[in-house]
Amino acid sequence: MACLMEPHSVAVHCRRSRTKFTEDQLKVLIQAFDQNPYPGYAIKQKLALEMNIEESRIQIWFQNRRARHQVQKRPEHEEDLEASQDKDQPVEKTQSKEGRRCRTSYTSSQLHTLNTAFANNPYPGIESREQLAKDIGVPESRVQIWFQNRRSRVQVQVKKEPD
DNA sequence: ACCCTAACCTAATCAACGA
DNA sequence: TCGTTGATTAGGTTAGGGT
Question: How far is CA A138 from the centre of its chain?
Fold first, then answer.
């Protein structure tokens, strides 16, 4: 517990505890990454279930690995990698953008809670985010994304209206 | 002290949904 | 169709844990 809120100093960034992947988990992740560094939501969720890890940790892991390992820019077209038989699913194995997570729709009361919290502190630590998530009944990862988007768009508005 | 990398960030962009 | 906004990305920074 080192997440005390100083009233006047704003950002006491309290991170979630660092995940320690087991060797088995890492093996599964790396193999999945080699097959497809841009997995859709379904794949990430399946991996999460398979290795008993939050899906958001899987997402972060893929983001970090893509950044560190120079991944092929656009594997859009594959010429001749047909081995023998792999036409079980026509367009279902390497979906990258098709399988997005379903868009979350917030109710007005959920948004009110989020907006109030944002006004209070636009950089909530993990504990605040989890409490918020629990309050409005949405995964913590969605709360984090909401704050990221909100902060970015506040900046955009400030630039557009420097008056 | 240094290294590796999970966690976190911004900015840009993709895309779902409603007016 | 178009604006709003959630989801994803590239790419960079911060910090935890091992050597």
Answer: 14
Lookup: nucleotide whose C1' is closest to A144 CA: B8
Residues A99-117 have pLDDT tens digits of: 999 999 999 999 999 999 9
Q: In terms of C-beta density within 10 A (0-12 exposed, 13-18 middle, 19 or more buried), how is residue A118 classed? A: middle
For residue A86, pLDDT beyond 50: no
Q: What is the pLDDT of residues A16-52, one digit of tens each?
A: 999 999 999 999 999 999 999 999 999 999 999 999 9
Report protein residues in contact with nucleic acid strand B, where contact means CB under 7 Å: A 13, 15-19, 21, 57, 60-61, 63-65, 68, 97, 100, 102-103, 105, 123, 125-126, 144, 147-149, 151-152, 155-156
Question: Which residue has the least CA–C1' distance to nucleotide B8?
Answer: A15
**A71: which residues sit within 8 A by CB, 6+ positions away?**
A37
A:107-126 Cβ neighbours of strand C under 7 Å: 111
